Amino acid sequence: MVKSYRYIQHRIRDNTLSQSAKNIEDHYDLGNDMFRMFLDPSMTYSCALFPEPLQPVEQVDFAVLEEAQFRKMDALIDMLDLKQTDKVLEIGCGWGACAIRAVKRSKCEWTGLTISHEQLDWAKRKVAEAGLEENICLKYQDYRLARGQYDKLISIEMIEAVGQKFLSQYFHVLSDRLIPGGTAVLQGIVCPDAYYDRYCKSSDFIKKYIFPGGHMPSIGAIKSSLPSDLKIGEIKHIGRHYAATLDHWYR
Fold it and tell me: pLDDT tens digit string along 88-133?
């Protein structure tokens, strides 16, 4: 009964246009000062990429963590193969670090979307400090309301906020926003296919208290949600690096 109640509670918080904003507010609008206590100076809230072989984390070193986050951003930016003439859409721009780093490297035109007021205020300030306001436009906007077409698209650990019910819609939005032959690069936390059905039919501590409305898709679920014009070019597994990232955040 308790599990059923938690599952119903979770489904009530499905990521509709109105509910998504409430779900994000409950987590990301807790205050930038809270996130500054454990994130690196770039305020990057996603898996970093550390040098191999991975080393045990004995004490927190924010410089090491920031370097690992920049290494991750550079890897994703390299996959985008950015050119100065590119128009790029970032779905879930966070505190703006990836946008700033990518535009410094490529001088492209970048549009970032978020539905967190706290993130948007911080990111806009950082963009202004970097002198990149002509290249970077950040908006408070749900990805489903985005318009126009872009050469490239990137979304870093935002797919977990989409929800099972809206997964197909998410990828159709990506398809609509990309020009024919465009490139999308996604980073996300996924659930093993073998456990996915059970995961979808239950709730847990993270869904209830940490990420209301959260949902980890499986690779199989992603593949079955793709419209015919979107093809997966490459999949990389960096789960071990997330363990190291979490270890840094914890300490």
Answer: 999 999 999 999 999 999 999 999 999 999 999 999 999 999 999 9
Structure tokens at 170: 């998410």
- Angstrom distance (rounded) from CA 219 to CA 5: 28
Domain ranges of the chain: 2-250
Question: HSE of 88 in the Cβ direction (CA atoms, 13 Å)?
Answer: 31
Instruction: Spell out a b/e string for 109-136, using b for 16 or more CB atoms within 10 Å of the CB, else e.
Output: bbbbbbbbebbbebbbebbeebebeebb
Alpha carbons 8 and 132: distance in angstroms, whole number: 45
Q: How far apart are CA 201 and CA 231, in angstroms?
A: 28
Q: At 170, is the secondary structure helix, strand, or coil?
A: helix
What's the CATH superfamily of 2-250?
A: Vaccinia Virus protein VP39 (3.40.50.150)
Residue by residue, DSSP assigns 59-90 as S--HHHHHHHHHHHHHHHHHHHT--TT-EEEE
CA-nearest of 226, 158, 157, 178 to 80 is 178
Q: Which long-range contacts (CB under 8 A, 24 or more apart) does 196-199 make?
A: 196/220, 196/221
